[in-house]
């Protein structure tokens, strides 16, 4: 712990918070212009990119360069791909029904806190491995190979799952439920991919101190995806669709597994 540049890290924290707030402010302005708060979904990946940029710049001359570059690239590739995908998917569409139901009857203050500031807080919490790990001065350990492997698997699941879903939606002769490709083995390949990405990023910093303390970050992300606002909220509405309950019975809810009969 004595080798960790605590002072430099603490100086970077306000800059990371400020970068997140700038992205959120721009997102709120865009939401007023576009007339929909669901634009914040596009900004989700950009919040992590903002933290990665601040971490990379602030840690120059203190953290291990190999880890700094690895964390920067892993986060930026994931965040920019996600922002591009969600932005492209929502272009030209109105407000997401989930936001309509959640925000109906509430004022501006509630919207700002629940939709924007909460997202910013969660992004800062989940990105702690990036912020802390960028300042760790010790060289990379062999476990980084496992972390990068998890990240690659996660990015593939997320990107391929999103692509397969878009192909399904664009097919006029599609079946009632998407149950082919990765969706045959898990009902949420993109959520599973997200979890693997952030577990992989954590493993890059896990052997170091205080990098190991950031284990809460992937734990929070996995909980949100598997049990919180991700899978649970989505399936609450999807269960009303014909055939989806049967799909739920035979298909794993998160971790890819062979389908049940």
Characterize this entry briefly.
It comes from Antricoccus suffuscus. With 261 residues, the protein is an all-alpha fold.
How would you portray this structure in words?
With 261 residues, this protein is mainly α. It folds into 2 domains: 1-137, no CATH class; 141-261, no CATH class. The protein has helices spanning 6-34, 40-58, 65-90, 97-103, 108-126, 128-133, 144-170, 189-205, 216-226, 231-238, 244-250. α2 (40-58) packs across α5. The longest helix is centred in the first third of the chain and has 29 residues, at 6-34. This is Steroid 5-alpha reductase family enzyme. The chain crosses the membrane at residues 12-31, 38-57, 69-87, 108-132, 138-160, 191-209.
- Average pLDDT works out at 91
- How much of the residues is beta strand, in percent? under 5%
Helix content: 55-70%
Distance N to C terminus: 53 Å
* Total E-strand runs: 0
Biggest sheet features: none
Number of helices: 11
- Find the structural class using helix and strand composition: mainly alpha
Number of structural units classed as domains:
2
Pfam families: DUF1295
Protein name: Steroid 5-alpha reductase family enzyme
Organism: Antricoccus suffuscus
InterPro entries: UstE-like
